[in-house]
Design goal:
The protein is α/β, with parallel strands linked by helices. The protein is built from 18 helices and 20 strands. It has a 6-stranded mixed beta sheet, sandwiched between helices. The chain has a 6-stranded mixed beta sheet with strand order 16-17-18-13-19-20, sandwiched between helices. A 4-stranded antiparallel beta sheet has the order 2-1-4-5, covered by helices on one side. Helix 3 (about 100-110) crosses helix 4 and helix 3 runs parallel beside helix 5. It binds adenosine-5'-triphosphate (ATP) and magnesium ion.
Length: about 500
């Protein structure tokens, strides 16, 4: 702790936020000091994002007090709270896509008027300095849609610190980042603390949070469980039970045990080009019926491109066969109907529709009876989806949305389920649940799974076989037991 002495800069007292009958945050109290990083952890839907938004004024607190340097700011509109010295990094990036990176930062510097994007010298200089600080110096003239994922998150950090806030609220900065990127982001957040700012940090990457924070507050169902030093909190029995969960068990089956002569899915020498960039280069993989195959690779390695090619969303060179028959020439809809179901990284939920409507869309090809059977089975895997059938998808927490996306894919009763980074934003305990759900799927159905992940602690235990993809090429193939020794560098 740098200067966590004297009076706290922020005092949250009995903060409560209700949505109809649901209490998302309940009587939450904590203090935050300048020069301190406080971590906020808890399972999906425990109210972390809602607590941040209520402090920031984006959600109006139902009751409670939020004292900033002694003055109550609870209930003020967000722009007034921001102006007092608050910056927030949102869980999901929402840049202005038609503006450049520099312009996006300039808009953040002038929050009261979106239209004042004029090239004032001092403003440009300031925006450039911020871009440099967060590592965007080389891409200031690009537009967000052309940027890699980590740069989009950097842009959010840049916007949050643009006006030199005293308090920075950071929601899931590490989700989807590589180990190296997590280390860079940790340094950046540490530098905010060293500036004397107070930082409130939410993330499910337990190791990185523990390494970064001065204290942790663990919450569950909207309430505080315990606050203390990271190592103490992680040892707390309730925290272990509701958040960390147990170890994921492993059980790889040898390839020879899959007796099909023709693999269910065969990708042969596939190449994909985006303009001049070669995104996939001579990729060959196969997946047997009933097999669970993990494709491990960092962001940008080519996992999503490969899945998009399989799903018929991209032109490619080479061949892709399903049960021996070429998929080329079939539309994405035909490929999906043939049982190749792709659950994309971006989730593609219908935000305005309810949980139930999203699920029903997935199961629309089923008879009434089959659909309710599938739904009942799904609700057993993900009880939260049953509880929240009437809630609109866009108001679900990050992790709840992820479960809905997977649930909708399962409603299609896939022959082969392609999961692209399903662990993004999931709490460890939910990972364990998802892991059990996948294991149950494996044991009770003949489902075939192709999983793309950079989170190897999740990708390995379930896998019968693993491929590693790097820069658009497959560089390793083997069983998960050999992964650590032969290919683990950079992942473990
Ligand atoms: N506008 C809303 N209407 C109804 N329920 C809501 C609304 N916003 C949030 N919720 C619910 O409040 C609960 C807390 O959500 P919140 O987003 O704060 O969770 P979280 O701890 O950030 O979870 P995650 O780690 O998955 O992001 C969730 O169950 C969510 O579905
Ligand atoms: Mg959240």
């Amino acid at each position: 702790m740098v200067s966590a002495s004297g009076a706290p800069i922020l005092e949250v007292q009995s903060l409560t936020k209700r949505f109809g009958g649901l209490t998302a945050v309940k009587n939450l109290s904590f203090d935050l000091y300048g020069g301190e990083i406080l971590g906020l952890i808890g399972p999906n839907g425990s109210g972390k994002s809602t607590a941040m938004k209520s402090i920031m004024g984006i959600e109006r607190p139902t009751s409670g007090t939020v004292l900033f340097r002694g003055d109550n700011i609870a209930g003020l509109p967000p722009h007034r709270i921001a102006r007092q010295g608050f910056g927030m990094v949102f869980q999901h990036s929402r840049p202005l896509n038609r503006q450049t990176v520099l312009e996006n930062i300039m808009v953040a510097l002038l929050p009261d008027s979106l239209l004042k994007v004029f090239a004032d010298r001092a403003l440009v200089e300031r925006a450039r300095a911020i871009a440099e600080r967060v590592g965007l110096g080389a891409v200031v003239d690009r537009r967000p849609p052309t940027l890699p994922f980590a740069d989009l998150r950097r842009l959010e950090l840049a916007k949050a610190i643009a006006r030199d806030p005293k308090i920075v609220l950071v929601d899931e900065p590490f989700a989807g980042l590589t180990l190296a990127e997590v280390a860079m982001f940790s340094d950046l957040i540490r530098s905010f603390r060293d500036d004397g700012r107070a930082v409130l940090l939410v993330d499910h990457n337990v190791k990185s949070v523990a390494a970064l924070v001065d204290r942790v507050l663990a919450m569950y169902l909207g309430e505080e469980i315990v606050t203390g030093r990271a190592d103490e909190v992680m040892r707390n029995e309730t925290v272990r039970r509701v958040y960390l969960g147990g170890a994921i068990e492993t059980s790889a089956r040898p390839e020879a045990s899959f007796a099909d002569k023709v693999p269910l899915l065969q990708v042969d020498n596939v190449s994909v080009q985006y303009g001049k960039a070669q995104a996939l280069q001579g990729v060959s993989i196969h997946v047997h019926e009933g097999e669970f195959v993990s494709l491990v690779g960092l962001n940008g390695a080519g996992k999503t491109t490969l899945f998009n090619a399989i799903s018929g969303l991209l032109p490619y060179g080479g061949t892709i066969l399903r049960g021996g028959a070429p998929l080329r020439g079939r539309t994405p809809a035909q490929i999906a109907r043939s049982g190749v179901v792709h659950c994309p990284e971006t989730r593609e939920l219908f935000g305005e529709m309810s949980v139930r409507e999203n699920l029903d869309l997935g199961g629309q090809h089923l008879s009434e009876e089959a659909r309710s059977r599938q739904l009942a089975w799904l609700f057993e895997l993900f009880p939260i989806l049953e509880e929240r059938q009437g809630q609109t998808a866009q108001t679900l927490s990050g992790g709840e949305q992820q479960m809905l996306a997977i649930g909708r894919a399962l409603m299609m009763q896939p022959k082969i389920l392609i999961l692209d980074e399903p662990t993004l934003g999931l709490a460890p305990v939910i990972l364990e649940q998802l892991s059990k759900a996948l294991e149950k799927l494996r044991q009770t159905t003949s489902i075939t799974v192709l999983l793309g992940e950079q989170n190897v602690t999740f990708a390995l235990p379930h896998a019968d076989r693993v491929y590693v993809i790097e820069h658009g090429r497959i560089i390793w193939e083997g069983d998960p037991g050999r992964f650590a020794a032969e290919a683990g560098e950079g992942y473990l």
